[in-house]
Amino acid sequence: MSTTNYAESARLLDRAKKVLAGGVSSEFRKYNHPHALFYTHGKGSRLYDADGNEYLDFTLSQGPLILGHSHPEVVKAVSDYSQYGQLYAGQHLKEIELAEKLNAVIPSAELMRFCLDGSTAVQTAFRIARAKTGKQKFIRFEGHYHGWLDNVCWGNAAPSLSSMGDRENPTANPWCKGLAEDTKEESIVLPWNDLGLVKSVIEKRHEEIAAIITEPVMCNNNCIEPAPGFLQGLRNICDQYGIALIFDEVITGFRLSLGGAQQYFGITPDMSVFAKAMASGYPISAVVGKREWMQLLEDGTVIHAGTMNSGNATVAAALTTIQILEKEDPYKRMFELGKYFMEGLRKVAVEAGQRMLVQGPGPMFCIAITDADKINDYRGTFSCDKAKLSTFIAAMHDRKIRIIGRGLVYISAVHNRQDVEQAVAVAGDVLKRL
Ligand SMILES: Cc1ncc(COP(=O)(O)O)c(C=O)c1O
To answer: Which fold is adopted by the domain 7-70+330-433?
Structure first.
């Protein structure tokens, strides 16, 4: 039973539900503990709700807040640049500066376009891949998330292991009702981290396949790292058959390194998508890639558009965020802090006699309750006790430690060892009572 007071949020949720469907503006916000909550402000690693509760925040608003809440330089840059205007239906100087910056720091970013979010940027990459290859389908992997638009909502989740069919010939489950049925045919869904299977499907069906899209680390389910050689194997097979390799770096971008997972793993995709940590919570994303692919946008062979794209506020937020990351270079610290956190959790879990698996590279990692030593793909996640994990996350929340409901933890450049020690101490206590 929670002793934390959520009464004001409950009252606001009742009011919101009368006019906002489910009281929220994004599905995932419903699943907070004990219900969708309302927040008043955030500063650094702390977030404050309408009941005055102060949380040590490891959700970072689902990833974007790599510099913590309300970073003063970002807020100032947005405010300063907004004094000049908001949106011109035209170009402006900082837009070039931002593109030049991405070009300098991301290995594959020879040409790019800005969008508003990850979902639309992913669709832009598909359109380019189809136009250049003259083929229609893309390979996507079970449990990876590439946004909420219809064609990527087959196979991202499944109600049970048995619903997924054979590994060699998976069933693509729809994420929800209402998807256009024919969008199911756009993708071939395969288990992740199984290069042999990808190769055998491509050998048979390469004449249909325009692209492979992958999260370079499978952050959306258990933070699974690529098996040794897997990403290189995808690169090789895409080169062999003229297929576009698309990295969805919406989470890994600016998080594993300034140049994203492609720099961290040393594998250069043809196109990739960046969003979340790019702009400290402002709505901007980028689809970037090698010139030979992206140039299809130059003459309108492929059309990408958007009234709200690259407005002053979002461009200023992105440019300033990336400049700060470049200047402060927090990556070594974020890796060390994440690893320290992971080791601390493993230790208190053993002490409490709980079977906890903590895996991931460090700047992000995932907590699971399972006997497994390692989870390698989405099918493996069904060994986890998700109900017990929810109880753990809820109890942590009642003790003011905020972690994403599926066990994902994000480290920011402003978290420190004391924050981690505080969270580990609370986790130890919670685990003993679980
Ligand atoms: C890997 C990945 N790709 C794409 C998206 C979609 O991005 P957005 O929510 O900005 O549309 C997400 C969102 O969580 C994501 O995690």
So the answer is: Aspartate Aminotransferase, domain 1 (3.90.1150)
